[in-house]
Structures are given as C-alpha cells and as structure tokens.
Amino acid sequence: MNTRALFAALILATSPALILPLPAAAEPPVYTDLFSDIAVQGYDPVAYFTAGEPIKGEKAFTAEFKGATFRFVSAANRDAFLADPEKYAPQYGGYCAWAVSQGYHAKGDARFWKIVDGKLYLNYSASVQKKWEGDIPGFIAEADKAWPEINR
Q1: Contacts 24+ apart (CB under 8 A), 93-97
Q2: Residue range 43-83, pLDDT digits in tens
C-alpha cells in the first residue's frame, strides 16, 4: 500500500471519532496546560493561603482532584488539600476569573491571583488582574452566574 492510500485509510478509519460528540463532563474542568495534567502550573494551591504567595510544588507531593494533578511543597500541604480540596483549589477550575465573568474560558496564570472571602481566584495577566480588581464583587457575581453555562 502506498503512502497516499495508507493516509486516506487512516483518515477514513478515524473520521467517526472526530465527529462524535464528547460526553458532558461530570464536573467542571480544571485548567491544565495543553500537554499536561498539572493544575495551577505546578504551584501549590495551599501555599497561597499559608505563605501568602505562589510557590512551586514538588513532584514528590501530589494529589489528584477533578482529573488534574496538583503539586505541593510538602506532605502537610498535600494533606490539607486532600482534607478539603474545594477550600484550596482555585475558583472556576483555575481559569481566568475575569474571563469567566465575561462568559468564556481563558487560562488562569498562577502569578496573578487574589484570595477573596477565603477563595483563590486566578487571572490571565497583570492587566486583566488590574481590570478585575476594579470591581471584584461584581465580577465574581457575574462569573458565578456564567460558570455553569460555560461548562454545559
């Protein structure tokens, strides 16, 4: 079989998989990089609360949550996360809080963050973070309304 025929056969064999709808997610997604299952770009979500800053987690201390792998700086932080992941995981799955308030997904960047009422929010960039900080309660209210629709 020549290369062209082999390529055509491969396309025909995989075409149905390309057009079938994906099943609805059981839970809202957690943002990870395209070729990774690592959440929060490898930063320890507990450290935002305990150290007051983003700190890269270690490969030795991980936990799975909603299909993503979270890294931690210590076993103690990992255990705190496992005891109450909703307390520490970023809101909107780590997607940009401002973008969600506008009705769409955009990646959240672990360097642009804020804890509001005991919840961690990430934003896309410094400029987006500044815009979001102009009306945090309003943007959170809008994002809370939009989030279920975005993930349908």
Answers
A1: 93/28, 93/29, 93/30, 93/31, 93/66, 94/30, 94/31, 94/39, 94/40, 94/122, 95/31, 95/122, 96/122, 96/123, 96/124, 96/128, 97/121, 97/122, 97/123, 97/132, 97/139, 97/140, 97/143
A2: 999 999 999 999 999 999 999 999 999 999 999 999 999 99
